[in-house]
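Ops channel
N.P.: pipeline sanity check, posting one input/output pair.
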């Protein structure tokens, strides 16, 4: 019998120390060399085999040595990278690196996965099967998940399923939020370059004004969501940048528009990309300009598997009580690189509550004031361990 709760309580102070160490020393995507070293040091102390993957990521492997002969294998993911934000928290463990901050809780995710490693490795003689520890770099940028998969982290032995979590300041500590099916949108960043013919601002008739063309393109693009995608399918076309010109009295030759497409079905994703290109080029041509369109293939939709959701719900109910397992009603238009794992294997992703207004941990993620209630660390470890063991033992 594994007493997970007591084992986690035994390392609570260590979890806080690890998280604060990582928080003080934030690293951006694919620059997480110090964090990678910290992870490796702990795995080596625990005698857990590991290898470096995706440049700054780590794969750890715990093989159960208990009775039984299961070949089941579960992956547990924790991301590692920080954001280019100047921290304004007055806490004693605030970032020591100017202009960098763990403003999204990845320091907590890494810490929780390290806690899982310690607890499961301590009890490996009490279960059979394999647990793969997936420490992912660069979630905030290009996403390390796809690179990790290409590096073979889901093979040898084959991973059957993957679970992951994200801290959430809008979920009260002591609760989780989880959703069946679509959890996060897909993302397609884009860039539209409009070519015109520049000239004097006092003689617009002698020019082809790319700013006017661009303004018409921006307006026309809003019809994709409002008039061409089903109203029951959430979607977004957002313009975040519009750059053109050098002076008030000069009509420039070029305008550059950048933004994102967010969609929640594969069909809408392909349709929105197609229409964005058609509208940009068509409107530009009608106003005597020319547009080139670049659309990136970024994160796909994150879709939870219903069986894996049940495993998380059961584990969280054991740890927190079923009344503290909250159903998420609608998908988020945010994106999450865990989606690559969810595309490759049956998966479940959920939100671990860290919000506490009395402690000031209810400030939004990606803000200078983001922080977590550290009481959530041990809860995250306990839920992840319970879910993994329930899966491996067939409970």
């Amino acid at each position: 019998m594994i007493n997970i709760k007591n084992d986690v309580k035994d390392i609570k102070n260590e979890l806080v120390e690890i998280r604060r160490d990582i928080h003080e020393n934030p690293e951006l995507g694919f620059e997480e060399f110090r964090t990678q070293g910290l992870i490796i040091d702990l795995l080596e102390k625990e005698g857990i085999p590991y290898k470096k993957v995706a440049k700054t990521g780590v794969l750890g492997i715990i093989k159960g040595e208990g009775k039984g002969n299961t070949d089941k294998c579960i992956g547990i993911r924790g991301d590692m990278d920080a954001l280019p934000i100047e921290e304004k928290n007055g806490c004693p463990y605030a970032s020591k690196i100017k202009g960098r901050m763990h403003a999204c809780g990845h320091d907590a995710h890494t810490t929780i996965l390290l806690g899982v490693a310690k607890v499961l490795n301590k009890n490996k003689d009490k279960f059979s099967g394999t647990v793969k520890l997936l420490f992912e770099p660069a979630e905030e940028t290009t996403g390390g998940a796809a690179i990790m998969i290409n590096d073979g982290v889901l093979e040898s032995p084959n991973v059957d399923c993957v679970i992951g979590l994200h801290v959430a300041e809008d979920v009260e500590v002591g609760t989780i939020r989880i959703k069946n099916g679509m959890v996060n949108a897909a993302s397609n960043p884009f860039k539209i370059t409009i070519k015109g013919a520049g000239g004097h601002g006092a003689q617009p008739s002698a020019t082809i004004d790319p700013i006017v063309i661009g303004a018409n393109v921006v307006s026309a693009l809003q019809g994709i969501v409002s008039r061409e995608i089903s109203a029951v399918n959430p979607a977004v076309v957002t313009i975040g940048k519009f750059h053109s010109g050098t002076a008030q009295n000069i009509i420039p030759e070029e305008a550059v528009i950048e933004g994102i497409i967010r969609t929640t079905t594969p069909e809408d994703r392909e349709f929105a990309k197609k229409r964005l290109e058609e509208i940009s080029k068509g409107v530009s041509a009608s106003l005597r300009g020319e547009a080139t369109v670049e659309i990136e293939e970024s994160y796909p939709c994150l879709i939870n598997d219903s069986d894996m959701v049940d495993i998380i719900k059961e584990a969280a109910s054991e740890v927190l009580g079923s009344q503290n397992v909250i159903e998420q009603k609608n998908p988020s238009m945010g994106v999450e690189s865990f989606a690559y794992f969810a595309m490759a294997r049956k998966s479940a992703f959920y939100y671990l509550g860290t919000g506490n207004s009395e402690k000031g941990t209810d400030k939004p993620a990606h803000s200078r004031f983001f922080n977590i209630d550290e009481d959530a660390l041990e809860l995250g470890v306990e839920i992840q361990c319970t879910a993994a063991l329930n899966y491996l033992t067939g409970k």
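N.P.: looks fine end to end. The first strand starts at residue 50 and ends at 53.
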